[in-house]
Amino acid sequence: MQSTTQNYELEEIDLLLTDANIATMDSNINAPYGAIENAAIAIKNGKIAWIGEQSILPSFDVFATPTLSVKGQWLTPGLIDCHTHLVFAGSRSQEFEQRLQGVSYEQIAAQGGGIASTVKATRAADREQLFVDAKDRLNTLLKEGVTTVEIKSGYGLDTENEIKILEVARLLGEHHPIDIKTTFLGAHALPPEYKGRADEYIDLVCTDMLDQVVANNLADAVDVFCENVGFSYSQTKRVFQAAKKHNLPVKCHAEQLSNQHGAELVAQFNGLSADHIEHLDEEGVKAMADVGTVAVLLPGAFYFLRETKFPPIELLNQYKVPIAIASDFNPGTSPLCSVHLMMNMACTLFRLTPEQALAGVTRNAAKALGLDERGVLKVGARADIAHWQINHPSQLSYQFGVNRLLLNF
Q: 272 phi and psi, to 5 degrees?
């Protein structure tokens, strides 16, 4: 049986969890979900000091050690939502209704709708409003067992408001139990004032915007929407080159609506992830596999947009590309603030297994954010642990709408 210890005496630990079934998601454990049944976990200084079968638990001082029995229930790593646009103002519910009544996207855009409406509302919003709205969304994810969330900018589209969004995201990280990672997505869309001048806007993104983001330590990564309705391959490359100069890792909204070879490009820069990827081809998959770039599936956007082109799951599995799953929570194309719903959709729409789905919001989601100390339960990892009232880990993907979370540690 797999268990390891660090140089801690168990009487020195902060908390001992006993009588547990643990889906460690550790790929080094030869069992589905990396499961250890009838197990225990010892926690010291926010990290896992010991994990293994309870029958081989080292001796400890029962009077000095805080101990909690989880009574045969399941523990998993805290869940990770590795792709969100969580900080924004306004609602696009009326556009949703219009589209269902037959109004085209072009007509909505001509009325000032689409992403332009979110940009306008977000620019007008103050930091307090953005913070309060985003905190409510984070609280929803926290109740689902989420302990880490990535937040992108991208609804400011000028230096002042991109900075504002990232500052709010950093502030959320300081004042919320969920750990926040931030991504600069200035190249999300072309702002109205730069219509017909995309190269000039990319100049701004690569210089003034990125310089100020870096100077204020506001981003953990840089992202670009590489698409025929977004930014071209060459424009995306310019942003990646600028990010590289600042030693910031990159990721890419790639191959959502067409194959612009964004996945291959992000792989050339040893990027963290290529996200959406419905139109990804085999060359792109190979490029990602060669450098370990994660494929982030966003089933909420696929569902909400009623797409019919599926991501190449078989190719991703064939080339052993890590697959993550995220909510892509945003007001326009995925207003769905639920990681559990994404897990169910990944299984029902994309035919992932429940084990793959759970790996997609733990181990592989951590990798998509460049984090190697979470997403699995093993010695030395962060003690981000979710405690569930379930009979088996597959239940987390199978059932939606009944909250089985008992506690986040």
A: -70, -45
What angle (nearest 5°) sits at the alpha carbon of residue 322, between those of residues 321 and 326? 130
DSSP 114-175: THHHHHHHHHHS-HHHHHHHHHHHHHHHHTTTEEEEEEE--S--SHHHHHHHHHHHHHHHHH
Overall size of the chain counted in residues: 409
Q: What is the three-state SS of 298-326? A: CHHHHHHCCCCCCCCHHHHHHCCCCEEEC
Residues 92-118 as b or e (16 or more Cβ within 10 Å = b): beebeebbeeeeeeeebeeeebbbbbb
Task: Assign 11 to helix, strand or coil.
Answer: helix
The pLDDT tens digits of the residues spanning 179-238 come to 999 999 999 999 999 999 999 999 999 999 999 999 999 999 999 999 999 999 999 999
pTM of the model: 0.96
Q: What phi and psi, each to the nearest 5 degrees, are found at residue 398?
A: -70, -45
